[in-house]
């Protein structure tokens, strides 16, 4: 499938905030499900070169999560973990994010699923990090590749389900 939707990744001026906006050709219920179902999540999360293994996944308000991302070609391995503060079906997920590379750091991410005409959906993920310096380091880290390729894989997953 050729992706026609653009992934917008931006730093919010003067705030330690990263905002990612992306539209999908599926209704909010289906897109939301791909965010909370661990079997679906592992099929689209991250860049194409990475395999994702779920270690802990309890996608409910008050639940927790942890997954490991691996790339065999260069022995890359990174753990990510957090907690689900709020999970409101097909509307909103509020969760914390940490990763092995910065175990003292944590971000708070709010993801919303907005219905659009034609059975489509807009996802807006807003992450608050500890400082503008960390925001800028994150944006320079290459995270955009993982986000864009991940959302392309989500497009393919959603296309395959229809």
**What is the count of helical runs?**
4
Distance between the amino and carboxyl termini: 13 Å
Class of secondary structure makeup? alpha+beta
Question: Which strands sit side by side, in order, in the main sheet?
Answer: 1-2-8-7-6-5-4-3
Mean pLDDT: 94
Which radius of gyration do the C-alpha atoms yield? 15 Å
Low-confidence runs of at least 5 consecutive residues = none
Total beta-strand segments:
8
| β-strand amount | 35-45%
The largest sheet is:
8 strands, antiparallel
**SSE string, helices as H and strands as E:** EEHHEEEEEEHH
Shape assignment: globular
What is the helical fraction, as a range of percent? 25-40%
Explain this structure to me?
This protein is an alpha+beta fold and 162 residues long. The chain contains 4 helices and 8 strands. The protein has helices spanning 28-36, 38-44, 132-140, 143-161, and strands at 8-11, 17-24, 51-57, 64-71, 76-88, 92-99, 107-116, 120-128. The protein has an 8-stranded antiparallel beta sheet. A hairpin with a 5-residue loop joins strand 1 (8-11) and strand 2. Helix 1 (28-36) crosses helix 2. The model has no long low-confidence stretch (mean pLDDT 94).
């Amino acid at each position: 499938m050729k992706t026609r939707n653009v992934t917008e990744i931006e730093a919010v001026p003067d705030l330690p905030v990263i905002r990612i906006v992306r539209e999908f050709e599926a209704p909010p219920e289906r897109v939301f499900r791909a965010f909370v179902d661990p079997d679906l999540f592992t099929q689209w999360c991250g860049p194409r070169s990475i395999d994702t293994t779920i270690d802990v996944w309890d996608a409910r308000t008050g639940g927790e999560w942890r997954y490991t991302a691996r790339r065999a070609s260069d022995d890359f391995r990174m753990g990510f973990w957090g907690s689900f503060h709020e999970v409101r079906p097909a509307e909103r997920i509020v969760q914390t994010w940490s990763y092995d590379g910065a175990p003292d750091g944590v971000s708070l991410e709010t993801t919303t699923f907005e219905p659009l005409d034609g059975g489509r959906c807009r996802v807006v993920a807003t992450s608050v990090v500890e400082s503008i310096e960390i925001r800028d380091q994150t944006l320079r880290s290459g995270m955009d590749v993982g986000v864009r390729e991940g959302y392309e894989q989500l497009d393919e997953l959603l296309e395959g389900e229809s």
